[in-house]
Structure formats: C-alpha cells, structure tokens
Amino acid sequence: MYGKFTEQYPTCALKFLYNHIKQPDSRKENAPFWDGRAVCRTGNCVSAKLIIDHINDRQPTDQEDVVVHVTVRGKCTHVRTADELEFNVDMPNRRQLSGMQHHKTGDVINTSATSATEMHFSKLGQLQKDEVAAGNVTVCQTPSILSQVAYERRMSERLHPNAVLELDIARKCWQSSVVGPTIPGYIQQLGLQPFHVVFYSEQQVRTYVDACKAGDAVIHCDATGSVMSSLPGQKRLLYYCFLLCNGSLPVVDILTTRHSGDWLHRLLLMFNSSVRRLTRGRVVMPKQVVTDFSYALMSAFNGDMTIEALYTLM
Predict the structure, then answer these.
(1) Is the pLDDT of residue 114 over 80?
(2) Which of 97, 100, 105, 256 makes the best surface tag, with the fewest CB within 10 Å?
(3) How would DSSP label each residue in 66-119?
C-alpha cells in the first residue's frame, strides 16, 4: 500500500495508525471494504486517509486489482529548501522493511554477490529528487539494517538453531529423498568429537568410478575456511573439496575440525569403501591428484588411495 502511495506523494514515510477490513457478516452496508489511517513518521506533518471500496457489491479477491482512494491533509513540513542545511524531525523519515519486501531484500543479498553496502549505494542512486529533499530514505535502508535483514532471512530458513542438529535433520531428509540402490542419501557420515561431515551421493561415486575406469580421472583437492561458524571447544573448521577435473564435479566434500593426514585418510577410506560396493570389491584409482603443499592432504592420499602421480602446485 505504501509503495503505491509514495509514487504520488514521495516526500513522507507513512506510519499506519488504523486499519479495518469489513467483515462479510457486517451490517454496515455503506462501509468500505478497507479503511486505513496513516500519518507521517516525522511528527507534525501530513495525515492520510485510504479507502478501498467493494467491487460490484462484493469483496475483492486475492491478486485482484483495486482502486485506492487517498485523501491527504496538511502540507509536508520537512522539505529542505536551498537555504536550509538541516531540519529537526521527531522520528527518521523511513519505514521499516516488513512483509514480502523484507523477504525479497534478504533473498537478493543472500543469493547474489551484492553486499549490504553495495545494495545501499545502489538504492541511494535511485532516490527521487522529492525524496532527497524531504529526507525520505525508505528506499535505501542503511547497510546495518540490510545486513540484519539478510541474517534474519538466513535464520528463518534454518532447520534448527544448532548446527549439528540441523545437519542431522538434513541427513535424514536426504536419506529419504535421495534414494540410491546401493548408497542412499547425501550426508554419509556425521560426527561430533571431532566434528566432521562427509558428503557424497551414489551418482557422484558412479561418476568417479567411470572416470577411473576410463583412465583419465584427475582429482583436484583443496581446503578453505569461513563456511560455518566455529564450534565451542574445537579447532577451526575447514571445508575440503575433492573435485573431478573433467566437468568440475565434486566427488566428495568434507567438513571437519581435525586436519591431520591420518584423520583425512580415515575419512577417504569410507569413500573408498562405497566405491568398492559399486565395483564388487575392485579397487579403482585416479590417474593424478593435484593439490597444494598441504602435508595433510598429501599424507591422506599416500595411504590406501595409491595413485600413479601426486602433483603439488604452488
């Protein structure tokens, strides 16, 4: 409603004080379908009356276009003139993000490469001259507000506030939805002390086996941090990705707080056991493994997963 109002009257950010929808069994025959009252958030400024009438003596349905009758009383008192450097207001001339606009803004920040600061300056450049003169900054919320919106949106989509329990719920969901004849699910192992999660599906294992049988399997492996909040009492959590060069397909992903070579080797042994389940006990090996100068990764591959060449790159 405010979005349509500000198209015609962009100087004031409204604060609604009264909203009433006529009930189907109401005996007030001449009452409108919706009646709203709003005032400018800055204080002593304009007030607005908004009314939506019935359509052919019936209530509007969802997604139906309606006509909103708006009556504005008063005059905007906080439009900056050329001689004024500043003016005092009771409250900031800005509405809070709520409803669908709150969700859409959070989704844009979380699903794109746009940061909260970049979105703020992008919206700042879209302000109309009347909005700038009146200080109506509803369109360009501050970076701190946009960051909070993105955080709240991420939290609303979480299955559980505890990361370990959330992963356990996801493991059960994937086990029911990702059905494989031999290896069901996607989270194949989940542990707490030390914290570790091993991700792969049967389709990934089959792709790895086919590449090894073709003789051109090249695995790139590396680790990175900052993918998950730290866990109390445990070391830094790292994400290990083992990527099949042909097609850039991950064959196994690992999250763990222990980074020794023997520990990573044990986790890879579990992946190898799944490989043997698809090859009827036969051992298949990649042609090459490419990694950086990580002793833990090189040690992990020098155990059970014997390969022709282990390449280390800067």
Answers:
(1) yes
(2) 100
(3) --EEEEEES--S----TT-S----SS-S-PPP-HHHHHHHHHHHHHSS--HHHH
